[in-house]
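Q&A log
Question type: sequence-to-structure
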Amino acid sequence: MTENRPDGSAPDGWAYLMLFIAPVLMASNMLAARWIEGSIPAVSLAFWRWALTLVVLAPFVAGGLWRRRALLAAEWRTVLVLGALGMGVCGPPVYLGAQTTTATNIGMIYASTPILIVLLARLFWGAPVSPTKAAGIALCLAGVVTIIARGDPSVLLSLSFAPGDLWIVFAALGWALYSVLLRYRPSRLPLTERFAAIVLGGVVCMLPFYAAEMALGHWPPATLETAGIMVFLALVPGLAAYLLYGRLVAQLGAQRTGMLMYLVPLYNAGLAYLLLAEMPQLFHVAGAALILPGLYLATRSEPAPAPAALDRAAAD
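Response status: OK
Response body:
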């Protein structure tokens, strides 16, 4: 069955193109987390990432949110939950986890989120999972495992898990819940205004933890480098990535959009080559050869059954 937009119209071709661009923005947060390696306190980093995002958005959305304050008041619980999940659970835990785990483990754990999204949507909202979609998910997962194992299955037996992996598992679960709720808790607010409200909710949820972190003496370094990192995180994996992700969820649905997480390990390899001069390997090509057709199967629109088929199904 074709998964249409909330207004009933079919998604356009640009949405599918953006599905392959969004993972670059997502991967930049994971790469930054590994690069920083705890030099900036985790809650401070997440708090200011989203506070700066809110500052950038404010001139464009403040008037609209004020005019639609009745709608915002009606949706405040959902907005707060989405902020707690998308900015809180998916924020500091990633930066904490990156201090004691590897980029490979982060990519492997986050690669589970499309499956979590499908399961959550199926369990709580009865979303259908066709055989074609299931086959696509299986191919994507096989491609991710190929990259993680570097083409050698025996590598999987030697993978070890650090304490930081638990933080990443927590963040991945939060991301899956955030994705599903975005789809199944529709809003009458425009996309950008809703996103700004969610960011505000996330900042409010993180404020007590930020205050506690500072009370314990963990202050971010007052340097230009720290400011530059926070601005980058606010604009690229913050503002750009989340707005694009929200638009994709609205057009393609949470399950299809969640598939883009399968591309993150592949894009990490490409970015490592561009930024760190690490040459791509044959196993990256093998992984891509599985992931790309898997994404096609998992995200393609399926024709609706003919009326006669529906009659037969009802009779059965």
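Response note: The chain has 15 helices and no strands.
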